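Final report, closing paragraph on structural work. Over the funding period we assembled a curated collection of sequence-structure pairs, and we close with a single example.
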Amino acid sequence: MRLMILLFALYSLAAVAEESLTVEQADSESVITEPVAVERPALRSRHQLELQRLQHAFPEQFRPLSSEHDVAGALYLPANRSTAKGWVILLPGSDQTADSARNIDAVRQILPDSGWHTLSLQMSTPPFAALHISPPPEPPPATTDEESATEPDEPDEPQDAATETLTATDDEPPETNEGVTGSSDDTNTVTATTPDASEPPLPEYSERILALLDAAIDIARKEAPDKLVLLGQEEGAYWISLWLTVRNQQADALVLLHAQQPDTATLPLPELTGQLNLPFLDLFIPQNIGESQAARQRLNSSSRNADNQYRQTTLREPAHSLRQNELVRRVKGWLSRL
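Its predicted structure, as stored:
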């Protein structure tokens, strides 16, 4: 009797354990199969990452810079003298940082020893310019082979066949053109990338750059500097020249390093530099015919201005490191004679 009671108890315990295991498996399966919504943070742009890097790398030099259109930053170094000569605003080229190893960082680090405050700007990233891909040519009509294959003594039959072929072609367009002429999938893609109508569109990139230059130069002018010098490299040389011309502002000197004209330029760079009457130094490297011709155009345009104080200098050192040393030495020496 006791043995039967013991066996019954063991059987009951096994049944209860199996039932609880089944319930746990069902719960685990329900938890696994249920989708969980994960809220992912928005990806940071390249410009935001660069600003964060500069702020962490140079916490004492970083200065926030913002306008009505963009948020940017700059690196500030004070003059290593009790009385500063003035401010030098540095504007790097496109896709270059405020501490760019290409000349900008060397210039901003050396000029404070000569008595200049330096402010190197980290400008906003230019808009992406997508490549334009032309659609493939349409295939020729498929009636030539059928017309050539018909017999000459039966003119009515090939004409009917050609008519039927043309009718079928009009009703059903070739499959090769669906991805080009705009299917429903293409329309949805364009609609998805269209910005929200409630968000005001950004102005032209040139206007955004000029607004940030306004904010940077306001920082310098609050200190009432004796001299204000603008230094631009590559596309940055174009933007500071455009700022002086369009804003009708005044500066004490202008330095152009390897001046380049951006693809979105509305006014040619030689025309801008030819209108300026302030002292400015134009340094360039004759690496190819295009750069030499552009430099010659800037020289000719400034020569036609009777009040010009333009000086153009060619960098002749063959190695990059020697050429950068020559550039820094010439900028430093030229500014010392202002």
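The beta strands are 62-66, 71-77, 86-91, 116-122, 228-233, 253-257, 279-284, 309-314. The domain at 56-124+204-336 is CATH 3.40.50.1820 (Rossmann fold). We thank the funder for supporting this effort.
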